[in-house]
Amino acid sequence: MQQIFLILGICLCLLLPCVVLAKDMAPIALSKTFNGSMESAAYWVSEKFDGIRCYWDGKALYTRNGNLIHAPKWFVDGLPSEPLDGELWAGRGGYQKVAKTVLDKTPNQEQWQQITYQVFDLPSRSQTFEVRQQTLKAIIERKNKPFLKWVKQTKVDNLGAINAALDNVVSLGGEGLILRPLNSLYEIGRSDTMLKLKVRQDSEARVIAYQAGRGKYENMMGAVWVELANGKMFKIGSGFSDDERQNPPPIGSEITFSHEGYTEKGLPRFATFERIKAQE
Fold it and tell me: Which of 148, 150, 136 shows the shortest CA–CA distance to 78?
């Protein structure tokens, strides 16, 4: 049975059309992973939100991939004329809710009431991070909208304080931290001045096959076989709810999984399914 699931999945995957869409990425900074070294005398630290990254150009909202977000008029009208960089968020652990809400082309007024725009930077400003934060906080306070939030920044000057902040966020159900070196400028693209820190790393892979379940998972999906961008294949069997095992991620879909580094063979260690990747 397992061989049948695997062969069927691979065959279906090979039949899927390969479509590459040219998109204009939003002009925002993208984070790198903090390597554990204090390369700045201190860092400004904030919570890393598990939402949808959102760029406001002064007139409309866009995902990081440059796709228009169809927000309600009252939401858009409450934003300033200056470009903003932040995250549309529905609370810790609310990724699926926020993705379903903000990526819908027809905005649901009631669901949007549960969304906040957690703003952490002013991408058009050439000032240092500290000055940008002072300006950003003042802009948001003047707007005084319940859904428009300034992301609190805390200065830390040692690894012990950084790890304590990480432990605190994780204990509250958060995902991790974002670190910004002192006096850093805003850099569009993959940036050395925007660093993420998490207990577990996140990666993405494409589902290519299913493996049948056994025991309590009989007649359900037991694991998914996935392929990384570098072509390496492996299976993920943990992190799925019973409902997700009965309705597994579609063949060919992109999923996000967490892991604890890599094995000597370059495969993710202790991989756990997190969610189907939203098409932002």
Answer: 148
